[in-house]
Predict the 3D structure of the following.
Amino acid sequence: MNTKSKTFRNVTLFSLVAISCGWIGVGLNQLLGEPSNLESLGSLIFISTPIVCMILLRLLGGDGWKDLPLKPRFKQNARWYIFALVVYPVVVGITLLIGKLCGWVDVSKFNVAAFLPVFVAAFLPGFIKNIFEESVWRGYLTVKMEQLTKNEWVVYLVVALVWQAWHLPYYLVLLDDAFLATFFPYGEAMFVLVSTLVICVWTIMYTEIFFLSRPLLLVVLMHSMEDALNPLISEGFAVISPDKTLLVSPSFGLIPLLLYLGIGLYLRKIRKSKGRIHA
């Protein structure tokens, strides 16, 4: 088997495992008569299976470890590290400011002194979690798709759809319904549609910043910043009118989505201007 065929086989196997593992975990919870929540055995299966699969494919499936981008490359990527740290706070800040000016968002409970410890408390565990998650989505699936095709749109699509399919049992079953409703009060069918669009747009931005910089640490930091801003909504620092969620929700709103899309396409333009198919 040649290298490309082996990579295609392993990407296919990994994708099937990632798509199914959460639902297998939920099914196991049902067989054991246990509730499907974030403390369940099924949740552990959902979280751990992709990284375990990636390790096995690198160890036993012939993928190896040479393309795992562990070097931080701080000197070459100083501006991209700054980008990773500020892109989510800037976009979320712009979104909430627009919402406030239009009367759609109440930020009267927000102050920096109160939010900062909440932010830090969310960032640290998120950072550890995202080391494993980004090792899978950028450090494995994106890298392997890059080896299979020179068409970045195919890379975006495959990574986004597998990433989203992996998330679905978490959102629809394992995560508490009331907690999810604080972010998206429109029901499951609409959530699947909107969240798929969000993941597709985010994937463009994550893929392009990864192609431009390469360090896994950089996308781990960016993902962790996004996670750490979620308490703005979940802890009531910003309260969005339910009928305006689809416009100004930091996670699911049209305004931030268009900003992220513009940023991702601009990053793509920068990479193309450097004469790179990939980094």
Notes: The mean pLDDT is 96. The first strand starts at residue 105 and ends at 106. Strands lie at 105-106, 239-240.
